[in-house]
Write a structure and sequence with these properties.
Largest sheet: none
Family: Belongs to the auxin efflux carrier (TC 2.A.69.2) family.
Strand content: under 5%
Distance between the termini: 45 Å
Main location: endoplasmic reticulum
Pfam family, one: Mem_trans
Order of helices and strands: HH
Function: Involved in cellular auxin homeostasis by regulating auxin metabolism. Regulates intracellular auxin accumulation at the endoplasmic reticulum and thus auxin availability for nuclear auxin signaling.
InterPro entries: Mem_transp_PIN-like, PILS1/3/4/5/7
Shape: rod-shaped
């Protein structure tokens, strides 16, 4: 499914869709970093 199909489905413009994709990538990278830090802290605490 490409971006054009998604914009047609949601009725959003190209600008809104690019902002949504940008925030999705930002949120994914931040949550991945926090999850990795929590996992390492948790494993280190179990030893």
């Amino acid at each position: 499914m490409n971006v054009g199909t998604i914009t047609q489905l949601f009725g959003a413009g190209e600008n809104e869709c690019s902002i949504i994709l940008l925030w999705t990538k930002v949120f994914a990278s931040v949550s991945l970093t926090l999850w990795s830090a929590f996992l390492m802290w948790f494993v280190a605490g179990q030893v």
